[in-house]
Amino acid sequence: MGKIAIFFMMGMVLLTGMVSAETLIICHPGVQETTIPQNTVRKIFLGKTTRWGDHSKIHIAVLKDRDAHALFLKRYIRRTPSQWRGYWKKMVFTGKGIMPKSFDATGDSLTYIAATPGAIGYIDADLLNDTVKVLNIK
Fold it and tell me: One digit per residue, pLDDT tens: the chain, 138 residues?
């Protein structure tokens, strides 16, 4: 009985770790900022802030992965995926914004962010590499 309980507890720990994977906000290594407020993250991904502190253009990258995108939206933007889509459709239709670039694969998003000055996106902490910079969120 004791072995079953230990096995079950180990499984729960692993499952919990998978569900609560840390989402990191990443950017092109040339972005001068190292720390930004969470409210600024929200403004950037809603297209309300379009330039970095040095006046360079911000290029937004998002993932098409439903789970990763939904977790990011919930934590940082406080919107559901359907609210996000509706918001950006309105921004594009009214000429107030350009739809963020979206990627099927995390690797493609990383490549884009690493190669595009001013780019910002998000990634699961387990998939981070040294081609991008992690922004500290306060």
Answer: 455 444 444 444 343 333 347 899 999 999 999 999 999 999 999 999 999 999 999 999 999 988 889 999 999 999 999 999 999 999 999 999 999 999 999 999 999 999 999 999 999 999 999 999 999 999
How far is it, in rounded angstroms, from Cα 37 to Cα 43?
Answer: 10
Q: Which tokens go with 61?
A: 């990258």
Domain ranges of the chain: 22-137
The CATH superfamily of 22-137 is Periplasmic binding protein-like II (3.40.190.10)
Helix (H, G, I), strand (E, B) or coil at 107: helix
Query: Are residues 22 and 127 in contact, defined by beta-carbon separation less than 8 angstroms?
Result: no
